[in-house]
Structures are given as structure tokens and as C-alpha cells.
Amino acid sequence: DAGVTQSPTHLIKTRGQQVTLRCSPKSGHDTVSWYQQALGQGPQFIFQYYEEEERQRGNFPDRFSGHQFPNYSSELNVNALLLGDSALYLCASSHPPPTGSRYGYTFGSGTRLTVV
Amino acid sequence: AQKVTQAQTEISVVEKEDVTLDCVYETRDTTYYLFWYKQPPSGELVFLIRRNSFDEQNEISGRYSWNFQKSTSSFNFTITASQVVDSAVYFCALSESSSSGGSYIPTFGRGTSLIVHP
């Protein structure tokens, strides 16, 4: 049973560029959440998608946007990259809120984004 | 205010020692959920345990045990007879309704890096 898969695993971008990260949820899950984890820090919630709509959003600027497809997979887009966007981006899947969130998330291995 | 505090940034032990990772949380809700995750160098967050606010029973799973005390808002994690494979970053997380519009989005602490030396 496949868990959460993310692509690519590593990415290097130049300041000002745009990036798209991809996530396929665990089989049976239809809700996807994205987190940003800076080096030495805990994951910070970016947003959550369910039924192809953004349901909750953390304290991140509009440069961070997302999308969920009918097959429940999701993309995270970041525009006008800043050096401070360098981080591990984690995707997590679950059953719909609030039940899914209460039972915890299944995380992928993340995409390591480096902005130079 | 930080919702989840993991005061220990890094702990270093020798194999077979017992080690306790501390977690203190803050919430106004009466219903909430607490979690521990393990993050090995591969990056994936691995779920270890979930506890709801109405269940203060301690839990033991092999070498792992958890002590939940609402009176002190703590949810500590103990590894008995640590092994080199336990080396990882451990995160405590809190899911509550009031800070996430009813969606119980987990909020993570900063993590504790555990290094177990052979």
C-alpha cells in the first residue's frame, strides 16, 4: 500500500523564480495538507485541501498557492522565490477534517527546496 | 504564544540508557489531541502515538512509553534502553479546534534531536 509520495525529492531554484511541488496522498485519503519545515524547526502549516478547495490556511503569503485534482493529488506553487523559502516541504494526507486531523496525518518524505 | 514547547533542543545518550523527551502544550480547548512523530534523516515524519484529552492513561509500546498529565499540560515520551536506531528528531504536536477553525490542524513543536551513541 503506497504511502504519501512527493516529487521531486530535491530542487534548486534561483531567487525570483517559481516552483511547483507535487504530492500523491496515501490510498484511501482524500485530504492533503502542506507544511514548510525550515532547518532546525518544526513543520509549519501552509494550507489544507479537501474536495479540490483550500479549506484552511496558515500564516503564509499569497505567493504560496495550491491546487487539488479530482484524483486527490495536490500541487504546491511558490512564486517569486525568496532565499527564506529554502526548506523541506512536507505533504501530509488524511481523511477529511475534522475527523482526519484528530487521528493524525501520514507524511511523505518531503521535497528539499534550495533557493540561491 | 507557542502552543507546543519542546525545551530540549538536543539530547545525547549512550546506547542502553533511558531517555525522556519533554513536551508542554498550551490550549484553551477541553477537547484536543496530542501526537508524537519521529523524523529520521530521510525526512519523513513517522507517526508514533495519538492521545485525546479525555484519556490520561499512560501507554507503553515496547521500549516506548508516554506520560500524559493534564494538570501540568505535559505529554512526555520515554525511550527505555535506547538504541542507535532511535537517533532522530522527535516532534510533539497538538490538534485543537479553536486555533484552526474547527479543523484540528496539528501544530508542531520545534523538535528534540536525539543522538544515541554506540
Portion of residues within helices of chain B: under 10%
Which structural category do the helix and sheet elements of chain A fall into?
Answer: mainly beta
> Which consecutive residue ranges of chain A, at least 5 long each, have pLDDT under 50?
none
The Rg value of chain B, from CA coordinates, equals: 14 Å
Largest interface: A-B, 28 and 28 residues
Termini separation of chain B: 38 Å
Q: Work out the strand percent of chain A.
A: over 45%
Oligomer: heterodimer
Number of helices of chain B: 0
Morphology of chain A: globular
* Major sheet size, sense and barrel closure of chain A: 7 strands, mixed
By secondary-structure content and strand pairing, the structural class of chain B works out as: mainly beta
Helix content of chain A: under 10%
What labels would you give this structure?
heterodimer, A: 116 residues, mainly beta, seven-stranded mixed beta sheet, four-stranded antiparallel beta sheet, 1 helix, 49% strand, B: 118 residues, six-stranded mixed beta sheet
Can you put this structure into words, describing what you see?
- The complex is a heterodimer of chains A (116) and B (118).
- By secondary structure, chain A is mainly beta.
- Chain A has 1 helix and 11 strands; from the N terminus they run βββββββββαββ.
- In chain A, the strands form 2 sheets. In chain A, strands 2, 4, 5, 6, 9, 10 and 11 form a 7-stranded mixed beta sheet that branches. In chain A, strands 1-3-8-7 form a 4-stranded antiparallel beta sheet, with no helix packed on it.
- In chain A, a hairpin with a 5-residue loop joins strand 7 (64-68) and strand 8 (74-78).
- Chain A is globular.
- Chain B is mainly beta and 118 residues long.
- Helices cover 0% and strands 51% of the residues of chain B.
- Chain B has strands spanning 4-5, 10-14, 19-21, 24-25, 32-39, 46-52, 59-61, 64-69, 74-79, 88-96, 106-108, 112-117.
- In chain B, the strands form 3 sheets. In chain B, strands 2, 5, 6, 10, 11 and 12 form a 6-stranded mixed beta sheet that branches. A 4-stranded antiparallel beta sheet of chain B has the order 3-9-8-7, with no helix packed on it. A two-stranded antiparallel ribbon of chain B has the order 1-4.
- In chain B, a hairpin with a 4-residue loop joins strand 8 (64-69) and strand 9 (74-79).
- The model of chain B has no long low-confidence stretch (mean pLDDT 92).
- Classes of the chains: A mainly beta (116), B mainly beta (118).
- The A-B interface holds A 33, 35, 40-45, 48, 55-56, 58, 88, 90, 92, 97-98, 101-110, 112 and B 4, 6, 33, 35, 37, 42-47, 50, 52, 91, 95, 97, 100-111.
